[in-house]
Fold each of these.
Amino acid sequence: MKLKLEVTARDGLARTGVVSTSRGSFATPVFMPVGTRGAIRSLSTHELAGLRTVEGSRAEILLANTYHLMLRPGAETVDTLGGLHRFSGFTGHMLTDSGGYQVFSLAPKVTAEGAKFKSTYDGTSHLLTPEGAVKTQELLGADMQMVLDVCAPLPSSESVLREAVETTAAWAARARLAHRRTHDQALLGIVQGGDNIVLRRESAQRTVELDFDAYAVGGLSVGETRERMLPALQSALAELPVDQPRYLMGVGDPLSILEAVSLGVDMFDCVLPTRLARHGTLLTNTGRLNIKRAEFARSEDPVDPNCPCATCVNYPRGLLRHLSCLGESTAHTLCTIHNLTWILGFVDQIRTAIVVGKLEDFRSQVTPVWSTMGPGLGE
């Protein structure tokens, strides 16, 4: 199912819009929380659904991971239980990654056929092919699925990046032919090429030639600086259709999101907000806040008096510090609620700045606060 973006406002290359799907629609720019195994760590689907920003926005898309779900509990089990939406209890849109990031992070044996790896659960061997990734994701039943790709680490030599581009292109063509669930599921092609501008442009052109339902840029935020990331991203975006959503995979730090939106990106995902939360680091308008610091031991203040999340409305910093220092799971939940609400609200602010034509002003306010935090934590 081809995804179309109806642009509602522009400010330079940045745009706001609405993407229509078989399930309904979602507004862009959009940040997608990551529920790797079908749920966000330390947060129930009910709690996720209850998050609301100052503007009233909520989490519209949840991302899950094919690699983990195919191993536990298995795609067939998820299908038997009614598909990923019913299995997870999430009624919004869902997107499944293909397992391509595991090709990068787990260093499996990659051949023309696919990626052979050992399960992180029980050590059994598995072969993930482009066709197999498509079939697995069709069984999972998300609204959007990704092709299997090869994500090269950075820095890498041009020959390594070239090989990743060639394999990704060949696998993308096979995935395109294998996709059968076209009535209610979009298949997204992925652009690779590392931080090489020429390879990025070529990969984008070859991916567009395959006529996917939407497009993603992968293989960034894997070790490079923001200064290396943005030119590579820009060269890829210049080749992608303007009437379809563009998804930057694995980038979740505030400044990189803002810079990418300024270049024309519409969709983001990252584990950054939830991972930071589980380690007691909270996102605020003045930067990162380490709730474990001794100065908060007797603080009666909320994390952010202007934040509408249940954590800020109901609990003082003193309690969050106490629970975080003890490693209590309740602390992980409360901090996750705040960080997801904050990042969703941050994207709201970007959207508003685009609508009123003040994105550059917003950038000047945000840059000093977040310039020391590098790009997210990978796809």
Amino acid sequence: MQFSFSEEQQQFRDMLRRFLAETSPTTETRRLMETEQGFDRDVWARMSQELGLAGLGIPEAHGGAGFGMVEVCVALEEMGRGITCTPYFATSVLAAKAIEHVASATVQAHLLPQIASGELTATLAVTEPDGSPNLADVKTSAVPADDGYVLNGDKRFVIDGCSAELLLVVGRTPETSGTHGLSLFQVAPDASGLTRSPLEVMDPTRKLAHLHLENTPATLLGVADAAASGLQHTLDLAALALANEMVGGAERLLEDTVEYTKLRVQFGRTIASFQAIKHRCTEMLLAVELAKSTAYYAAEAADEQSPELAALASQAKAMAADTYVQLAKEAVQLHGGIGFTWDNDTHLWFKRAKSSEVLLGDPAWHRERMIQNTVDHMQVAQA
């Protein structure tokens, strides 16, 4: 597979970078991370209406732009550069892709246009209190009732879980196990028995929530007990999308750190002139470029519907996570004492790197999954 950005994709990147520089500088990030909602609805409306960002990866038939994962990942890479506080990842990636790959055609026609227009924010609740990213570990029960289903259980680490206007919850039919018996449900934000609580997290720029469901009414989206395949595909797309967001953050850290080494003076000369510093910056550049290539290779594989997508998505997530965390540590070190202070912005990327490292599965989990998927694919090919 050969990959390069088209002229249109590069123009989109440049346009989005200018827009985010204007609307989402780090001063705005600092302001929004102190708010309960965590993003600016007016800026989100502009992103959706002026740039068409909310519907970028949503099919044209449902009001979106109909672009693929490469374009979605370009957008997330640019947002990652500035730690832009928006509901884009939860709404237009997690929720929209879950609806597209699991819900019925009627539900898609109803919900996706609202997401594409920016009028509806949404999220997907999968992970439970044990923190496992594995669908087989879902325990939330879904019991049929007279007018739908009733859910009981807990969901943790739900992105934008307290502010989302549409909650998609994964539950399972009682007495089922593994990936059998999983279904996708819609839960109203004001549903009875639902408690939404914000979590205290390291990274205040990405709001996470705990959802407690106690006899909470829910509506089935799609076919009962048959959501596992579509949900796993959604999580694979989300993992590679998150990988590209992390790559964007790592790139920004590299650029800012290199510029700072040209200003910081030790022993009468800028530290950028020391060979040891040059070597460290070179290693940082190589790590970023390798992670970026891996992440976009996975995005291209998704657009080409490659059977190796699961392995490639896990590879991209693991590599991007390791790179982002390592770059964040190096950035703090090379900034010296100021790198540890609140006034310097480096800590914002460090916290985002550490939180993203474990979101949707940590590097160790994804490496194990990548190896298992690769082995399974080879066995099928040899059969």
Amino acid sequence: MNRTPTLVSRLPAVGTTIFTVMSALAQQHGAVNLGQGFPDFECDPLLLDAVNVAMRAGHNQYPPMTGIVPLREAVARKIEALYGAHYDAGSEITITAGATQAILTAVLAVVHPGDEVIVLEPCYDSYVPNIELAGGRVVRVPLAAGTFRPDFHAIAAALNPKTRAIIVNSPHNPSATVWTRDEMQRLATLLDPTDTLLISDEVYEHMVFDDAPHVSASTIPALAARSFVVSSFGKTFHVTGWKIGTVAAPAALSAEFRKVHQFNVFTVNTPMQHALAAYLADAAPYRTLPAFYQAKRDLFRAGLAGTRLRLLPSQGSYFQCVDYSAVSDLGEEAFCRWLTSEIGVAAIPLSAFYADGRDQHIARLCFAKRDETLRAALQRLARL
């Protein structure tokens, strides 16, 4: 008898994600998909040319496990130029298969069964499964209701000798808030007497608006000394499908990170690494990114101003959250389904980013789209 053995799931709570559901619904109804967080426009042709050059130059075999030297050196120079922080390219910079893999690898490298890890809800959906796979205990601390600012009293109350790490994401997905220098310094002060590590998810670092700075954990020495700082080339250069990111961490942390990295990924796409190393010689593409995305944010917010949707602040990332209380009494998932099928615009319910599915009548929209895509969505949303 042919029988597949029954498995006990490592992740029993994980099913089809709301992102998959809403994308399928958008396709079914011909809706403008502002749910998924990735661009619908192309990257710089110069970056594609650099990939072709690398491939034809023979850079098609396994690279070093930690990433090619020119790219690690370019990343170290970029961090120092932007944030004034020095990382050794040889021992403190690792090239990863995207930021999601970087976060998983950091968690697996440092979390032992029974260790606690603090996540600040609402949060990116990979954090909790990552911790569970490591055998850790998830400690959920909500961001302040209404503002999504960090609640330091709640964070302090959650810290204890079992706390192995805290995951912080700024600019923040889904709320589009950005931590200030004072807030990052307060975090440093809270963590200083502890052995708690920081996993700093900074994938939207180049999407901070209104002339505000991105305050990287690397800029605060007390945080940098205990942090894995995670960045994403995919987010920065509009190539999310390339799945290439970086982790900057002190040598002792990087050594443990690399022990896991070499067995869950080993190496990262070679020609893309060479292309990115060459492309980083020009700082303009990432230094001009805040203005590029701010223009899209402003276009989108101006178009929504005439609707009954209440716009929450969008300080960074490429997301805009809206409170639809004046439009509908439906719960968040039901509203987003209705918005997709009846209005023709797909969004993501904020409740998807909370373990308890709490409903605040807020939906997340993505403006990393061509202007014509945004205008098409705005034309439909004008009915609200």
Amino acid sequence: MDYVFPTYKRFPFEIVAGSDWELTDDQGKQYLDLTSGIGVCNLGYNQPKLNQAVAEQLTKVWHTSNLYESSLQDQVAQGIVNGEDYLVSFCNSGTEANEAALKLARKATGREKILAFNHSFHGRTYGSLSVTGNDQIKVGFTPMLAGVSFAEYNDDQALEQVSSDLAAVSVEVVQGEGGVYAANASWLKTLAAKCQQVGALLIIDEVQTGMGRTGKLYAFENYGLKPDIFTLAKGLANGIPVGAMVGKKSLGKYFGPGSHGSTFAGNPLAMAAAKEVLATMDSEFLEAVAAKAEFAWHYLEDLTALECVTGVTGLGLMIGIHLSSEVKVAAVIEKLQAAGVLTLAARDNTLRLLPPLTMPASELLAGIEEIKAVLAEAILVGV
């Protein structure tokens, strides 16, 4: 690639086609996909109903602007809030959704300070990057947004940092990029209670965990929480760029006309796709995801018997296989690619799995067995 900034370290093949949970590269090689485009294509690839929804919208209108009413936006927003007391602000990505959340929190509270967590990831634009707990990706881009502090995730001492001068606390239910670590239930509930006590808004980043990934529409539902603000993107339109910042209705007065906006936000193509995704993710679909996750975890736990596996973490179909230092995750990913399985990496030498939610249990098991075989070989050859 000669004309594109080298901001990504790319594998030396191109994906040219996909169907359901399988992808095909430019050499005709097929792969079992355990990545979903980094948690985006939760419904898999080339889905007829989704294709039809987008194709039909293409024949109507692609873009006008947000100067006019949009019944399609309102229908999607209704699906997102799912009967709860929330309003939706659309955008085009997860990082934009988190930017909107930070702006709303500061304006609504009249406070400046934000508490975030080490090893978190919220995006790469300045506000979102400022609340991301990874100094490595901030090199050369400082100074960051003022007023941001960090605490240890799942650490009771972090609760002491929730104070009355905070505008918000920004947290992930599962730290995806940070190693696929799920929040301890009692810790997260106490964090939410502390926020309410001091008047700080609780922002939950559901960009990777949302849209069915954990067996619930939103991961915070597993914990019985109702955040002040939550953010969505990735799986919301199954690959069509979209994001959403969702806030309690009581916050609506702080985001009036002219206070925030985005040219392409809520465009008809993205809304057509999102509407179909939300229609697909009914209670029956989510129950099936939860059942497949339970099935998969039964076999995933067996991986801990391997000498090179130090643990398996995550929630639902968001899975992290932690490897010992003797086995490098990058080498394992390449070995799996050669075997026709696509996987991801995360912090702490972690092999990360984000399979399409539509993948049958039999295919999930086939992927896990291939991982097991590659890891067993890795021990012998010292990958």
